[in-house]
Here is the input.
Amino acid sequence: MTEIELLSWARGPGLQIATIIFVAGVVIRIFEIFLLGRKANLAEAKGGEMSNGLRTMITRTVPDRTTFKRSSVTIVSGYIFHIGLFIVCFLSAPHILFLKDVIGFGWPSLPTPVIDAFAVVTIIALLATLVNRLTNKVMRYLTNFEDLLTWFITFLPVVTGYIAFHRIGMTAPTLLAVHILSVELLMIIFPFTKLMHAFTLFIARWYNGAISGYRGVAS
Amino acid sequence: MSASLDKGINAFKRQIDSSVAAFFSSCVHCGLCAEACLFYTETGDPKRTPINKTEPLRRIWKSEYTLFGRVGKMLGLTKKVDDKFLEEWQELVYDSCTLCGRCSMVCPVGNDIALMIRKTREGMAAAGQAPEGLIGATNRSVTIGSPMGVKWPALRAQIKHVEEDSGLKIPVDVEDVEYMLLLSSMEIMNFPEFIEAVAKIFDKAGATWTISSEAFEATNSGIQIGVSDIAAELVQRIVDVADKLRVKTVISPECGHAYMAIRWDGPNLVGKPFNFKVRHILEVMDDLRQQDRLKIATKESQKLTYHDPCQISRRGGVIDEPRRLIDMIADDFVEMPDGGKMNWCCGAGGGVSANERADEIRLKVFERKKAQLDEVKPDAIISACSNCRIHLEDGLEEYNMDIPLLSLTETIAEHLAED
Amino acid sequence: MTDINNEAHFRRELESLDDLQQRRVAALFVNHVLSLGTDKRLERVVKTASDEDATMEELAAALKLAHAVTFDSHARCGAEGHWDDQAGYFVARAAVAAVTLPDHSRAGGPAWQAAMSARMAHTSMLIDDDTDQHSAHTECEWQYQCLSDYLKA
Here is the structure.
């Protein structure tokens, strides 16, 4: 297979397969959650469920002071790579162009040097999270194969994207194919792993806020 | 209560609902919950990480309620839940957790981990993996009516003593009153002056109330051990009597888990809303305060701080009421660091103090509370849970700290105006 | 002075005693129920409480000891409660009251608190005794008499 054929496959059938598995997988996982249902609360309410659920969805983003002091490395490195990923994924020109093809519209991008800087920062932050995961006593105890796998498939697209953009090592088409394939790898493994938290955390936070809010506590 | 692994697994399954599924789906193994849990922070043992305590429930969820998990199970790829594994987890689920709920407040993805551990206990208990002390307490609750074996004649003797002491009559089995007071065995045995305090407050406030000779026990061992059927039976006894006497409000005394059991779990356990309200004694006193029926004559001059009982405060919603009451009787009040809904657990609730095997760890984790007190240096600590009080006293004694524990209800009663 | 035969009078007289008198009367109350408890350490506490020359250090040490006995004897939450053991807990509480400084004492003063706890110790012994014949009042009556005798002396 020539490098052009590889790239065409990655952009074509590869992307289609990955998208189907991703979308179907995410939908199934979310459906499985709601299918289980939850019994209504028969106790006399002290606060509202919906309003508190919605509030916690947002406020849980901000850790309290004591928690932040005790886990600052985990929190800071985590936030940096999440924000970096978001910026690199959705505010870089080539990605916006690609998305425009898919969904029909685009939006303004950030200048290349800025994206570049965020990509580097994201890579460093991701490496920091890996080191943290392997050295922090609690994380080391909790960490399993899935944690390492998901780290890897998240790390790969950022690094291969950076390399492809800067044309380091291989020819442009190959580098691009590798980057796209790495994203497709992420997409097909995503629904089987904790990466689902990207969607389910909103559900979990809502339940948390609703349950506590019912009892009159803002969680 | 015959137990078996099969019963356990079925019990685990029954506990899984959409919230549990959302929680397990979202956990990213970040470890923040560990730093919120005093059983981890004071021991440094990572196996005590809160989310780790739910592993039995997680395995069942994965292999039974997720498509991929079920596929994995068919391929023999799932982690097993057997007696050996559950036995290993007993110490984590019971000895190392008071269901305090701090973990649920800090999890970044929003998991209510304390709820998940509570649910895990249902499976553990059904599989026969609950600690000795708790099983005894639960059996006594069911057969005698009190986890500590306190029967009506004992309470009646305490009541007689209180009547002689105070000159007030304690109403028993009176119908159509505003309030029916429940009592925990701990109060009846160790702090009978609580009854006197309530009698004085109600007398001055002109409130009508009663104690029931048929259902006076507030403590619910079913909740602590994690057997909802038993918890429901214990609640039903109270419901039956409250309906019979046609009381308007049932009062939960100074006991943490009792409040959670009757106020929040109660109707869900028995499957019906109550015909009466349920309020904690602190809420009742705050109501009286708002209605100007609580007249205070004197104040405490010593430096006071408040220990929030977890099940009343963070998990129960009664956070501001005690502070408004303390405001009435304190000239010098100072909050502990993290005071309020993020306060640290005393380390003894949720069945931990009933479990002798957990004595050592219970005293060890007290160091977290000690650290808070070292910063505040109060003259006395006020709280509203008999178990917290006894355990804090125990811990303070162990560490040679001379700080008296006061009950908020008793302190209010002491400062009431004599008209 | 007429003999004491009601609560109000009893309490008034107790509260009018000075610090040393309170301590010694409290010691008398505790001593009367000492046999209901099994912890011998309380004997030392009572001895210190009755000693008119007891120093602040000795009182502090006695208080610590009495507290220790309460922690060892109280009923644990959820554990099976034994009322005769509980009597020992209340005896210890009475001892705590006896050696607590009046400033730190709960309402009514050390002697009143010691009296109440001593009565509770007596009541505890009667609880598992299924006859409902006796009441804590017999302890009460003994305490009235004890105080009357003390005041006359």
About this structure: Residues 295-414 of chain B form a domain with the Rossmann fold fold (CATH 3.40.50). Chain B touches chain C through 42 residues (CB under 8 Å). Chain B is about 55% helix and 5% strand. The two ends of chain B are 54 Å apart (CA to CA).
